[in-house]
Amino acid sequence: MTVGTNDRMATTPVQRAQVENxxxxxxxxxxxxxxxxAAQRDLGGIRRDGMLQIGLACESLKTxxxxxxxxxxxxxxxxxxxxxxxxxPDDSAARIGDPVAADWDICIDFDAPVQRIIAASExxxxxxxxxxxxxxxxxxxPVQQLLARLEARL
Length: 154
Known about the structure:
Elements: H1 5-42, H2 44-47, H3 50-81, H4 104-107, H5 112-136, H6 142-153
């Protein structure tokens, strides 16, 4: 995150608050995912269906992976905002990467709480990816905005 002194003063508090709030949300969701998948695994119905057990295990791993990518990204952003010299914008952890999509043909057979967790983890990942894309875009100055409006009128 290479920004000038003035830009850093204007954006860092907002970014810091966003990162902290998303970090709390991600950690709560990770705890909920652990509990929901464990509860689903312990239910009698899933034990009788081997394919459903395998599907649950796969979707549990995908959801956990998705959440761990989000948490790693957020921790790296925290370090960058804090000015940690070991955390740079070109590090692999500075990019959220490609999403690991859930297989909703399998997920449809899970209980509603598990489906909600999977969907919430996908939405959180999408939000992080959108946030990263927005932060990567160069800031538009008021002069550039004015010139763009003038150009659009001509």
